[in-house]
Amino acid sequence: MANLASTYQSQGRLDEAEKLFVQVIEAQETKLGVDHPDTLTSMASLASTFWNQGRLDEAEKLGVQVIEAQETKLGVDHPDTLTSMANLASTYGNQGRLDEAEKLGVRVMEVSKAKLGVDHPNTLTSIGNLASTFWNQGRLDEAEKLFIQH
Fold first, then answer.
1. d(CA 121, CA 45)
2. In whole angstroms, what is the distance from residue 5 CA to residue 22 CA?
3. How far apart, in whole angstroms, are the C-alpha atoms of residue 124 and residue 62?
4. Does the model's pTM come out above 0.70?
5. Number of Cβ atoms within 10 Å of the Cβ of 117
6. Residues 134/98, Cβ–Cβ less than 8 Å
7. PANTHER family this protein is in (predicted)?
8. What's the CA gap between 132 and 148, in Å, rounded?
9. Cα(96)–Cα(133) distance, rounded to whole angstroms?
10. Is there a contact between 24 and 1 (Cβ–Cβ < 8 Å)?
11. What tens digit of pLDDT does each residue of 118-138 get?
12. Nearest CA to 104 among 114, 95, 93?
């Protein structure tokens, strides 16, 4: 069911994806528990669906909930946690909350460098995302430095 929901999301069938993700999460919470990694992954996917629907406040709320659970269950340096943090930073950026996006983006970049290495694709993505945040803040020199590093 989760795979079908992801397929719907990829096809842009966001309402169908949302409904199916909700069903998946309800079943996973019952069978696996609210903090099981599979449940958290489905919740992150639902947050992404909200983001794609332009429902940024709901994406933010669910994203924060997912990150808090992932940090406890998986750790702050787990790739899933870092991905959720990067997604939340993107949500903040789209909400115009650039200082919060920057703070979270810096954290993702630093942890990614330490955990995954400076040349890992996820680390490079986090550097590019932070550079974009700097660009949106009008901090062009800092953005340029990161883009060159990226």
1. 21
2. 10
3. 26
4. yes
5. 10
6. no
7. AAA+ ATPASE DOMAIN-CONTAINING PROTEIN-RELATED, ATP/GTP-BINDING PROTEIN-RELATED
8. 12
9. 10
10. yes
11. 999 999 999 999 999 999 999
12. 93
